[in-house]
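Hey all, quick one. A colleague (J.T.) asked me to put the magnesium ion job into the tracker so the inputs and the C-alpha cells live in one place instead of scattered across chat threads. No bug as far as I know, just bookkeeping. Sequence used:
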Amino acid sequence: MTRREWFQISAAPLAPGLRAAEPASLQLEIVRLRLRHTWTTVMSSSEYRDNLHVTYTRDGITARGEGAPIPRYQEDAASARQAAESLRGLIESADPWPFRKLTAEIARRLPGQYAAKAAIDIALVDWLTQRLGVPLYRYLGLDPRDTPVTTFSIGIDTPEITRQKVREAAAFPVLKIKVGLATDEETIAAVRAETSKPLRVDANEGWKDKEEAVRKIHWLESQGVEFVEQPMPAAMLEEARWVRSRVHIPVIADEACLHPEDIPRIAEAYDGVNIKLMKCGGIQAALRMIETARAFGLKVMLGCMIESSIGITAAAHLSPLADYADLDGNLLIANDPYRGVTVEDGKLVLPNRPGLGLIRAN
Ligand code: MG
C-alpha cells in the first residue's frame, strides 16, 4: 500500500448513519504462532506463522479477531496490519450495531487484504454477540450438536515422521493427508502402516496434468480416501471438469475458489468447496459462500490456515452448516494464546459462552 492509498482510505468521510456516540478502541498486534512440527505443503515449509490479532473494545466489552495472511495471495502480517491501521479512524468512530453497513464500507475502501478484513469482521461479530449475551452459533440459529468431526492434518514429511504424526493423531477419527509430490505413494503407505481410519487428501495444486490427477485419485480410491482437495492448479478449470467426470470420490475446490462470486464459475468442475474465513474475509463472507455453494448443489467444507483459537473458534461456530470440517490450525501450534472450541473424539465442541466464547489460555 502506498502512502497515497493509505491516506485515501483513512481520510475518507464517514457514511451517514455510521457515526457512534462513544468511540471504541482498536488494538492491533502481530502474534508469532510457533508450530509443533515444521509444517510442509506443496507450497511452503515453515516453523512459525505471524498472524494479525485485533482487539476491539467498546462499552466495557473486549472482542477479538484474527487474520492469517495467505502468502499465495500476496498478503503478510505487516501488510495486514497496515491495512487494518488504515481503517482505524473508521472502525473506532463507527456504530458497530449496523455492522453489515460498516463491513460494506470497509470492503469499499480497502481492496484485497482479506486476512485484515477477516480479523476486523470476526472482532465486530464477537463484540455484537457478546453485547447481546448469546454465543455466535445461537445468534446464527444453529444447533451446536450439529457440528461435524474435524480432520487432523498431517503435513508432508519423511515416512518415519509421518508415522509418528499419525500415532500422535490417535484421538482423531479422520485424518487429512497433504500430498502433491513424487513421494505421495510413500506418504500414504506410511499412514496406512499405522492406521486404517478414513483419510481425506489435499494435493494443494500439486498434480500438474489431468491424466496424472486421475491416475492418483483412482489409486487413492483404493486406499480408503473419502475425497480429494484441489488436485491440480486453480486455473485448470476445464481439466478439473474432465477429472471430476472420471473419478468416484468427491473433488473439492480450495485454491480455485476464494470468494462467493467464484462459486458459479467452478460449480461444474468440482463437487464441493473448502471455505476459509481467511480467503473470503470473515464470518459474513463465509456465510454468503455457504449459501451460494448450497444453491449450486455443492458440498461445503470449512477449512483454515495456521490460526490460533480466535480464528478457528469463529469458523467452528459456522460448522453446523458444513458437511466437512478441517479446523485444526490451533492444534498444530504450541503457543495458542486463547481457548475456545475444543475437540472430543474428533467432534467440534462449541463454547456456550457469549460471543465466540474465548478465554485466555492460563
Ligand atoms: Mg487445501
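Adding what we noticed when we looked at it: The mean pLDDT is 94. Residues 114-132 form the longest helix (19 residues).
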